[in-house]
Write a structure and sequence with these properties.
By secondary structure, the protein is of the alpha/beta class. Helices cover 44% and strands 14% of the residues. Strands 5, 6, 7, 8, 9, 10, 11 and 12 form an 8-stranded mixed beta sheet that branches.
């Protein structure tokens, strides 16, 4: 990125400050227009630089530590982090150093530290990518790393961190013929039937997009519907449906789908994707608890959660959050499971899932639901699939998916999935 990329660098710095200091997430910033004033190429550059810096913050901080007597103000620290990310990514030192000196100098509170910024970044430039590449994968912030280590052990968490640092490929779910979609897009067919693209580029330009042959959906996120395996005419409600990947899967299988979500904006995206793919579902804009239609054969509940399983694609999450909202989310999940069971006919199935790495939002929720509801059972028969690896199974009868799984294929999102059967 040359000096001509200064607007993108300033925008990346602004976004990083909003994430680390204000607790805002990238989708929120983009929706608020953080990238709107930039031309398309600079917009993509700012977005990519922000993501790359977030993925490597811990590594950047370790690169900076020998050259800092004390931690500078966050305005300066984030400029240095961005600079380290670019320098160790191979960008020319002159343009990078000048740009972030200018970013620091523009702020009256930090303009006296432009000399420090210049000196530190030039020292980092002397070390270059070689020193960066010798470092281990960046560590997850402590507030989240500690419970992950307690749940899965240090070796597993190191594997997750390597997956988070590598980022995520684009996965597709085919409407009908996954082999044909893999061939037309040049993607890798995964054991679960999803298609993985190592270099997708602009998704809307890929073959099959305009004709609605597929949609973007992480391979792990596609598994809950695969476990349910609905038949034509199965009456299913997809609670918390947006952005709609699971609704599309259900509709493609021929199920009679009702998609429920509280967000009008996000539900608009669901209807757009239904239209593009030529699939049909009933859409309802409603809070899940206010939806009270009963008699469903199945309920798919992808409950609101910490989203800690999606850090491969959302590296802003551990820096924008601190875990303080997790207790309220866990309480909400419990209530949503109880409500979802009231929508089922006797003998109906509830697919409970969360994109979380925390057992309290997965395994523990199911254990407690089984204790609360006599006769409720886990349907372990849904796990008898040739592509399900034994290590994914959990004692209470669900699946635990983690970013460190499939290391030779590029990992997957963290997910918990369990199919529960209501008493007949």
């Amino acid at each position: 990125m040359s000096q001509q990329g200064l607007p993108a660098r300033r925008t990346a710095h602004f976004m990083l400050m909003q994430i680390t200091d204000e607790g805002r997430l990238i989708p929120e910033l983009i929706a608020g227009g953080a990238l709107a004033k930039l031309p398309n190429d600079e917009r993509a550059r700012a977005h990519r630089l922000t993501l790359d810096t977030l993925r490597g913050i811990d590594r950047a901080d370790r690169m900076l530590k020998p050259f800092l007597k004390k931690i500078p103000p966050s305005h300066v620290l984030n400029a240095l982090r961005l600079g380290v990310t670019e320098l160790c990514g191979g960008e020319a030192a002159h343009g990078v150093v000048n740009a972030y000196v200018e970013v620091v100098a523009r702020n009256k509170r930090t303009q006296s530290m432009k000399g420090l910024t210049n000196a530190v970044l030039r020292k980092v430039a002397d070390l270059g990518p070689e020193a960066w590449n010798k470092m281990p994968a960046p560590l997850t912030p402590g507030w989240l790393r500690q419970p992950l280590v307690a749940a899965w052990g240090r070796d597993a968490v190191k594997g997750m961190e390597a997956a988070h640092f590598a980022g995520a490929s684009v996965d597709l779910t085919a409407k009908t013929d996954h082999e044909a979609v893999a061939k037309m897009t040049g993607g890798q067919l995964l054991p679960t039937g999803s298609i993985r693209l190592s270099d997708a580029g602009q998704v809307s330009n890929l073959p099959g997009f305009a004709t609605g042959d597929w949609w973007v959906q992480d391979a792990a996120a596609a598994i809950p519907v695969k476990l349910l395996d609905p038949r034509k005419g199965t009456k299913v409600v997809d609670l918390c449906a947006a952005p709609g990947g699971k609704t599309l899967q259900l509709a493609a299988a021929g199920a009679a789908v009702t998609a429920v979500d509280v967000s009008e904006r996000r539900m608009h995206r669901v209807t757009e994707n239904l239209s593009r793919t030529g699939l049909t579902a009933t859409t309802v804009i409603s809070d899940a608890f206010a939806f009270e239609e009963t008699g469903f054969d199945a309920v798919l509940l992808d409950a609101p959660c910490s989203a800690t399983g999606t850090m491969r694609r959302h590296p802003d999450l551990p820096y924008a959050k601190d875990g303080s909202e997790f207790g309220a989310l866990i309480d909400q999940q419990e209530k949503m499971i109880d409500h979802a069971l009231t929508l089922l006919k006797p003998g109906g199935q509830l697919v409970f899932c969360t994109c979380s790495l925390l057992p309290d939002e997965g395994e523990v929720q199911v254990e407690e639901a089984l204790a609360r509801h006599p006769g409720l059972q886990t349907d372990t028969g849904t796990l008898d699939r040739p592509w399900i690896e034994p290590s994914w199974r959990t004692p209470e009868g669900g699946l635990r998916l983690r970013p460190d799984y499939w290391p030779d294929k590029g990992g997957m999102d963290g997910f918990y999935v369990c199919v529960l059967t209501k008493p007949a």
